[in-house]
From TrEMBL:
Coiled-coil regions, chain positions: none
Organism this protein belongs to: Neovison vison
Protein name: HAUS augmin-like complex subunit 2
GO annotation terms (biological process): centrosome cycle; microtubule nucleation; spindle assembly
One CC-aspect GO term: centrosome
Amino acid sequence: MAAANPWDPASAPSAAGLLLGHLVASGVVTQEMLNISKKSDSYFANFSRLQQITEIQAEIYQKNLEIELLRLEKDTADVVHPSFLAQKCHTLQSMNNHLEAVLKEKRSLRQRLLKPTCQENLPIEAVYHSCMVHLL
């Protein structure tokens, strides 16, 4: 058997190796326990699976956001559609024309509102004539 090379780090026992050898010799740790702990690739495999699951969940979340945006766009598409906007514009223009007419007739409207209405004839159906006689 060849003598250990003092300059080769693989041949020199490390402090951790010496400690583990001492623990195995004293019976605190068994060799099976050390062999189980050597299987570090299972931890990394689980870690990589966990990372893949996290990435897939992030992708699912992103797709759900895109679906929600598409649904919102679909729900609001009829509101911003040009034909609906033209109809709303036409309605607003007619309201604007009516308000302009009211402002032009402001003086005559004010005079009509100030004039008393008690001496005007109101058309009443014949069925209600007896009721009006009792009321007056």
